[in-house]
Amino acid sequence: MSGALIGPVAVLDAMPQDMQDKVRGYAEGLDLRFARSFSEEDFAETVKGAAYIVPRGRGLPASVLRGADSVRLVHQWGTGYDKIPVSVAKEMGVTVARSPGVNAPTIADLTIGMMISALRRIPLHYNNTRAGKWIVPEIVPGARDLSSQKVGLIGFGAIGQLVAKRLTGFDCEVLYYRRSGEAEGTSARYAERDEILETCDIVSLHMPLTEASHHTIGAAELARMKADALLVNTGRGGLIDEAALIDTLTNKRIAGAALDVFTEEPVQPDNPLLRLDNVLPLPHIGGHSEDNLKRMVGHWASNIRAFHEGRGIDESCIVT
Protein backbone atom coordinates (compact mmCIF):
# COMPACT_ATOMS: atom_id res chain seq x y z
CA MET A 1 0.00 0.00 0.00
CA SER A 2 1.53 3.30 -1.07
CA GLY A 3 1.14 6.74 0.46
CA ALA A 4 1.37 8.06 4.00
CA LEU A 5 0.64 5.72 6.85
CA ILE A 6 -2.61 6.20 8.81
CA GLY A 7 -2.20 6.98 12.46
CA PRO A 8 -0.53 6.97 14.79
CA VAL A 9 -2.42 3.94 16.11
CA ALA A 10 -1.69 3.16 19.78
CA VAL A 11 -1.98 -0.57 20.47
CA LEU A 12 -2.33 -1.10 24.22
CA ASP A 13 -0.52 -4.40 24.44
CA ALA A 14 3.09 -5.15 25.35
CA MET A 15 3.97 -7.65 22.63
CA PRO A 16 7.35 -9.20 21.80
CA GLN A 17 8.90 -7.94 18.57
CA ASP A 18 7.94 -10.96 16.49
CA MET A 19 4.27 -10.47 17.40
CA GLN A 20 4.48 -6.77 16.64
CA ASP A 21 5.83 -7.65 13.21
CA LYS A 22 2.93 -10.03 12.57
CA VAL A 23 0.35 -7.44 13.60
CA ARG A 24 1.98 -4.82 11.38
CA GLY A 25 1.80 -7.27 8.49
CA TYR A 26 -1.94 -7.73 8.98
CA ALA A 27 -2.54 -3.99 9.54
CA GLU A 28 -1.00 -2.78 6.31
CA GLY A 29 -1.02 0.98 5.86
CA LEU A 30 -1.31 1.80 9.58
CA ASP A 31 1.37 3.47 11.69
CA LEU A 32 1.30 1.25 14.78
CA ARG A 33 2.97 1.96 18.09
CA PHE A 34 2.90 -0.59 20.92
CA ALA A 35 2.97 -0.09 24.67
CA ARG A 36 6.31 -0.98 26.26
CA SER A 37 4.58 -2.60 29.23
CA PHE A 38 1.12 -3.02 30.73
CA SER A 39 1.61 -0.18 33.19
CA GLU A 40 -0.81 2.73 33.15
CA GLU A 41 2.16 5.06 32.73
CA ASP A 42 3.32 3.33 29.56
CA PHE A 43 -0.25 3.25 28.23
CA ALA A 44 -0.47 7.00 28.82
CA GLU A 45 2.78 7.58 26.95
CA THR A 46 1.69 5.36 24.06
CA VAL A 47 -1.56 7.26 23.41
CA LYS A 48 0.04 10.71 23.32
CA GLY A 49 -0.49 12.17 19.84
CA ALA A 50 -2.30 9.02 18.65
CA ALA A 51 -5.39 9.46 16.48
CA TYR A 52 -6.52 5.91 17.12
CA ILE A 53 -6.34 3.65 20.18
CA VAL A 54 -6.70 -0.14 20.10
CA PRO A 55 -7.09 -1.58 23.64
CA ARG A 56 -6.74 -5.32 24.13
CA GLY A 57 -7.13 -7.53 27.19
CA ARG A 58 -5.98 -4.99 29.80
CA GLY A 59 -8.47 -2.41 28.57
CA LEU A 60 -8.19 1.38 28.53
CA PRO A 61 -8.09 3.17 31.90
CA ALA A 62 -10.22 6.30 32.04
CA SER A 63 -7.22 8.40 33.09
CA VAL A 64 -5.29 7.22 30.03
CA LEU A 65 -8.14 8.10 27.71
CA ARG A 66 -8.53 11.54 29.28
CA GLY A 67 -4.85 12.15 28.62
CA ALA A 68 -5.09 11.17 24.95
CA ASP A 69 -4.74 14.57 23.28
CA SER A 70 -5.43 13.62 19.65
CA VAL A 71 -7.66 10.54 19.74
CA ARG A 72 -10.60 10.30 17.33
CA LEU A 73 -11.50 6.61 17.55
CA VAL A 74 -11.09 3.87 20.16
CA HIS A 75 -11.43 0.42 18.58
CA GLN A 76 -11.51 -2.58 20.90
CA TRP A 77 -9.35 -5.52 19.84
CA GLY A 78 -12.21 -8.01 20.07
CA THR A 79 -15.87 -7.96 20.99
CA GLY A 80 -16.18 -7.14 24.69
CA TYR A 81 -15.80 -3.48 25.61
CA ASP A 82 -16.40 -3.72 29.35
CA LYS A 83 -12.89 -2.39 30.05
CA ILE A 84 -13.35 0.75 27.93
CA PRO A 85 -14.71 3.89 29.68
CA VAL A 86 -17.42 4.52 27.10
CA SER A 87 -18.95 7.39 29.08
CA VAL A 88 -15.61 9.21 29.11
CA ALA A 89 -15.24 8.67 25.37
CA LYS A 90 -18.69 10.19 24.82
CA GLU A 91 -17.76 13.23 26.91
CA MET A 92 -14.68 13.68 24.72
CA GLY A 93 -16.59 13.17 21.46
CA VAL A 94 -14.57 10.05 20.70
CA THR A 95 -16.14 7.20 18.72
CA VAL A 96 -15.89 3.70 20.23
CA ALA A 97 -15.99 0.60 18.03
CA ARG A 98 -15.48 -3.14 18.37
CA SER A 99 -15.25 -6.32 16.29
CA PRO A 100 -18.44 -8.28 17.06
CA GLY A 101 -18.37 -11.96 16.21
CA VAL A 102 -14.94 -11.92 14.57
CA ASN A 103 -13.35 -14.15 17.20
CA ALA A 104 -16.45 -16.34 17.60
CA PRO A 105 -15.13 -19.41 15.71
CA THR A 106 -11.91 -19.45 17.74
CA ILE A 107 -13.65 -19.10 21.11
CA ALA A 108 -16.29 -21.65 20.16
CA ASP A 109 -13.55 -24.15 19.32
CA LEU A 110 -11.83 -23.55 22.66
CA THR A 111 -15.13 -23.94 24.51
CA ILE A 112 -15.63 -27.40 23.03
CA GLY A 113 -12.01 -28.29 23.80
CA MET A 114 -12.43 -27.23 27.42
CA MET A 115 -15.59 -29.28 27.77
CA ILE A 116 -13.85 -32.40 26.48
CA SER A 117 -10.67 -31.76 28.51
CA ALA A 118 -12.63 -31.35 31.74
CA LEU A 119 -15.01 -34.24 31.12
CA ARG A 120 -12.22 -36.67 30.20
CA ARG A 121 -9.80 -35.24 32.82
CA ILE A 122 -7.14 -34.77 30.17
CA PRO A 123 -4.92 -32.39 32.22
CA LEU A 124 -4.60 -35.00 34.99
CA HIS A 125 -3.44 -37.71 32.57
CA TYR A 126 -1.19 -35.29 30.70
CA ASN A 127 0.60 -34.33 33.92
CA ASN A 128 0.89 -37.95 35.07
CA THR A 129 2.32 -39.11 31.74
CA ARG A 130 4.78 -36.21 31.54
CA ALA A 131 5.94 -37.16 35.06
CA GLY A 132 6.63 -40.75 33.90
CA LYS A 133 3.55 -42.20 35.60
CA TRP A 134 1.89 -44.64 33.20
CA ILE A 135 -1.50 -44.96 34.89
CA VAL A 136 -4.22 -46.77 32.92
CA PRO A 137 -7.31 -47.29 35.10
CA GLU A 138 -10.13 -49.50 33.88
CA ILE A 139 -12.41 -46.47 34.26
CA VAL A 140 -11.22 -42.95 34.88
CA PRO A 141 -13.22 -41.81 37.95
CA GLY A 142 -15.72 -39.15 36.96
CA ALA A 143 -14.78 -39.18 33.27
CA ARG A 144 -17.68 -38.73 30.86
CA ASP A 145 -18.27 -38.45 27.12
CA LEU A 146 -19.37 -35.16 25.64
CA SER A 147 -21.82 -36.98 23.39
CA SER A 148 -23.88 -38.11 26.38
CA GLN A 149 -24.25 -34.63 27.88
CA LYS A 150 -27.17 -32.22 27.95
CA VAL A 151 -25.64 -28.78 27.43
CA GLY A 152 -27.16 -25.44 28.39
CA LEU A 153 -25.84 -22.21 26.90
CA ILE A 154 -26.54 -18.98 28.78
CA GLY A 155 -26.08 -16.29 26.17
CA PHE A 156 -26.72 -17.01 22.51
CA GLY A 157 -24.89 -14.47 20.41
CA ALA A 158 -22.34 -15.30 17.74
CA ILE A 159 -20.18 -17.44 20.04
CA GLY A 160 -23.07 -19.27 21.70
CA GLN A 161 -24.62 -20.10 18.34
CA LEU A 162 -21.35 -21.52 17.00
CA VAL A 163 -20.90 -23.59 20.17
CA ALA A 164 -24.41 -24.98 19.65
CA LYS A 165 -23.63 -25.78 16.03
CA ARG A 166 -20.48 -27.66 17.01
CA LEU A 167 -22.28 -29.57 19.76
CA THR A 168 -24.76 -30.98 17.25
CA GLY A 169 -21.83 -32.91 15.79
CA PHE A 170 -21.46 -34.63 19.15
CA ASP A 171 -25.18 -35.51 19.26
CA CYS A 172 -25.67 -33.41 22.38
CA GLU A 173 -29.04 -32.13 23.47
CA VAL A 174 -28.54 -28.36 23.47
CA LEU A 175 -30.62 -25.78 25.32
CA TYR A 176 -30.03 -22.04 25.28
CA TYR A 177 -31.21 -18.91 27.04
CA ARG A 178 -30.92 -15.32 25.95
CA ARG A 179 -32.61 -12.23 27.29
CA SER A 180 -34.14 -11.35 23.91
CA GLY A 181 -35.92 -14.71 23.64
CA GLU A 182 -35.93 -17.39 20.98
CA ALA A 183 -33.56 -17.32 18.02
CA GLU A 184 -34.27 -18.42 14.47
CA GLY A 185 -32.25 -20.88 12.43
CA THR A 186 -31.00 -23.14 15.23
CA SER A 187 -31.76 -26.71 16.22
CA ALA A 188 -31.06 -25.86 19.87
CA ARG A 189 -34.09 -25.47 22.14
CA TYR A 190 -34.87 -22.25 23.98
CA ALA A 191 -35.28 -22.67 27.74
CA GLU A 192 -35.46 -20.45 30.77
CA ARG A 193 -32.34 -20.13 32.90
CA ASP A 194 -33.80 -22.17 35.78
CA GLU A 195 -34.40 -25.16 33.51
CA ILE A 196 -30.85 -24.96 32.20
CA LEU A 197 -29.35 -24.72 35.67
CA GLU A 198 -31.47 -27.54 37.10
CA THR A 199 -31.34 -30.06 34.24
CA CYS A 200 -28.15 -29.59 32.21
CA ASP A 201 -24.95 -31.58 32.65
CA ILE A 202 -22.88 -28.69 31.30
CA VAL A 203 -23.70 -25.00 31.73
CA SER A 204 -21.65 -22.73 29.47
CA LEU A 205 -21.62 -18.92 29.68
CA HIS A 206 -21.54 -16.73 26.55
CA MET A 207 -22.80 -13.33 27.67
CA PRO A 208 -21.17 -9.90 27.55
CA LEU A 209 -20.36 -8.41 30.93
CA THR A 210 -22.77 -5.61 31.80
CA GLU A 211 -24.35 -4.31 34.98
CA ALA A 212 -27.29 -6.62 34.31
CA SER A 213 -25.15 -9.73 33.70
CA HIS A 214 -22.67 -9.18 36.55
CA HIS A 215 -22.67 -12.27 38.79
CA THR A 216 -25.23 -14.02 36.61
CA ILE A 217 -24.00 -17.14 38.35
CA GLY A 218 -23.95 -16.70 42.12
CA ALA A 219 -24.57 -18.89 45.15
CA ALA A 220 -28.28 -19.33 44.40
CA GLU A 221 -27.65 -20.35 40.79
CA LEU A 222 -24.84 -22.74 41.72
CA ALA A 223 -27.13 -24.37 44.28
CA ARG A 224 -29.62 -25.12 41.49
CA MET A 225 -27.06 -26.99 39.38
CA LYS A 226 -26.78 -30.78 39.34
CA ALA A 227 -24.20 -32.38 41.62
CA ASP A 228 -22.37 -33.82 38.60
CA ALA A 229 -22.60 -30.65 36.47
CA LEU A 230 -19.72 -28.83 34.82
CA LEU A 231 -19.64 -25.02 34.62
CA VAL A 232 -17.77 -23.50 31.66
CA ASN A 233 -16.91 -19.82 31.28
CA THR A 234 -15.17 -18.42 28.19
CA GLY A 235 -17.05 -15.10 28.45
CA ARG A 236 -16.00 -12.74 31.22
CA GLY A 237 -14.89 -13.47 34.78
CA GLY A 238 -17.41 -11.07 36.26
CA LEU A 239 -20.29 -13.26 35.10
CA ILE A 240 -19.56 -15.52 38.07
CA ASP A 241 -19.42 -14.71 41.77
CA GLU A 242 -15.96 -16.20 42.33
CA ALA A 243 -16.32 -16.45 46.11
CA ALA A 244 -19.51 -18.49 45.69
CA LEU A 245 -17.86 -20.66 43.04
CA ILE A 246 -14.84 -21.35 45.24
CA ASP A 247 -17.12 -22.41 48.08
CA THR A 248 -19.19 -24.63 45.78
CA LEU A 249 -16.17 -26.33 44.20
CA THR A 250 -14.29 -26.73 47.49
CA ASN A 251 -17.28 -28.56 48.92
CA LYS A 252 -17.79 -30.45 45.64
CA ARG A 253 -21.41 -29.43 45.26
CA ILE A 254 -20.90 -29.52 41.47
CA ALA A 255 -18.43 -31.68 39.56
CA GLY A 256 -16.14 -28.92 38.33
CA ALA A 257 -15.49 -25.78 36.35
CA ALA A 258 -13.55 -24.96 33.18
CA LEU A 259 -12.54 -21.30 33.22
CA ASP A 260 -10.74 -19.21 30.61
CA VAL A 261 -11.60 -15.97 32.41
CA PHE A 262 -11.39 -14.66 35.96
CA THR A 263 -12.71 -11.70 37.94
CA GLU A 264 -9.19 -10.30 38.26
CA GLU A 265 -6.76 -10.73 35.40
CA PRO A 266 -3.98 -11.65 35.44
CA VAL A 267 -5.29 -14.09 38.01
CA GLN A 268 -3.38 -13.92 41.30
CA PRO A 269 -1.20 -16.97 42.12
CA ASP A 270 -2.96 -17.39 45.47
CA ASN A 271 -6.43 -17.59 43.91
CA PRO A 272 -7.97 -20.79 45.38
CA LEU A 273 -9.39 -21.72 41.96
CA LEU A 274 -5.86 -22.51 40.79
CA ARG A 275 -5.38 -25.08 43.55
CA LEU A 276 -8.60 -27.05 43.18
CA ASP A 277 -8.31 -30.33 41.30
CA ASN A 278 -11.84 -29.95 39.91
CA VAL A 279 -10.98 -26.73 38.05
CA LEU A 280 -9.52 -26.46 34.56
CA PRO A 281 -8.00 -22.93 34.46
CA LEU A 282 -6.70 -21.14 31.37
CA PRO A 283 -5.23 -17.61 31.05
CA HIS A 284 -7.91 -15.96 28.85
CA ILE A 285 -6.62 -17.45 25.60
CA GLY A 286 -10.04 -17.84 23.95
CA GLY A 287 -9.21 -15.67 20.94
CA HIS A 288 -5.48 -16.34 20.78
CA SER A 289 -4.84 -18.37 17.65
CA GLU A 290 -2.85 -17.63 14.50
CA ASP A 291 -6.02 -17.73 12.41
CA ASN A 292 -7.89 -15.36 14.68
CA LEU A 293 -4.97 -12.93 14.88
CA LYS A 294 -5.08 -12.41 11.13
CA ARG A 295 -8.87 -12.16 11.10
CA MET A 296 -9.11 -9.81 14.09
CA VAL A 297 -6.31 -7.42 13.19
CA GLY A 298 -7.58 -7.29 9.62
CA HIS A 299 -11.02 -6.31 10.89
CA TRP A 300 -10.05 -3.45 13.20
CA ALA A 301 -7.44 -2.21 10.73
CA SER A 302 -10.08 -2.11 8.00
CA ASN A 303 -12.41 -0.14 10.28
CA ILE A 304 -9.68 2.36 11.12
CA ARG A 305 -8.96 2.88 7.42
CA ALA A 306 -12.67 3.39 6.71
CA PHE A 307 -12.98 5.89 9.56
CA HIS A 308 -9.87 7.76 8.45
CA GLU A 309 -11.12 8.00 4.88
CA GLY A 310 -14.57 9.18 5.95
CA ARG A 311 -16.34 6.06 4.68
CA GLY A 312 -17.77 5.26 8.08
CA ILE A 313 -17.85 2.03 10.07
CA ASP A 314 -20.60 -0.57 9.95
CA GLU A 315 -23.22 0.31 12.57
CA SER A 316 -22.97 -3.14 14.15
CA CYS A 317 -19.41 -2.26 15.20
CA ILE A 318 -20.24 1.08 16.84
CA VAL A 319 -20.68 1.14 20.62
CA THR A 320 -23.51 3.48 21.56
Describe the structure.
Belongs to the D-isomer specific 2-hydroxyacid dehydrogenase family. One of its GO terms (molecular function) is NAD binding. The protein is α/β, with parallel strands linked by helices. It has two domains: 123 residues, 3-Layer(aba) Sandwich (Rossmann fold); 178 residues, Rossmann fold. The protein is built from eleven helices and twelve strands. A seven-stranded parallel beta sheet has the order 8-7-6-9-10-11-12, sandwiched between helices. Strand 6, helix 7 and strand 7 form a beta-alpha-beta unit. Helix 5 packs across helix 7. The chain is globular and about 65 Å long.
Topology:
Blueprint: E1 6-12, H1 17-26, E2 30-34, H2 40-47, E3 52-55, H3 62-66, E4 73-75, H4 86-92, E5 95-97, H5 104-120, H6 122-130, E6 150-154, H7 158-168, E7 173-177, E8 189-190, H8 193-199, E9 202-205, H9 219-224, E10 230-233, H10 242-250, E11 256-259, E12 279-281, H11 290-308
Parallel strand pairs: 1-2, 1-3, 3-4, 4-5, 6-7, 6-9, 7-8, 9-10, 10-11, 11-12
Helix pairs in contact: 5-7
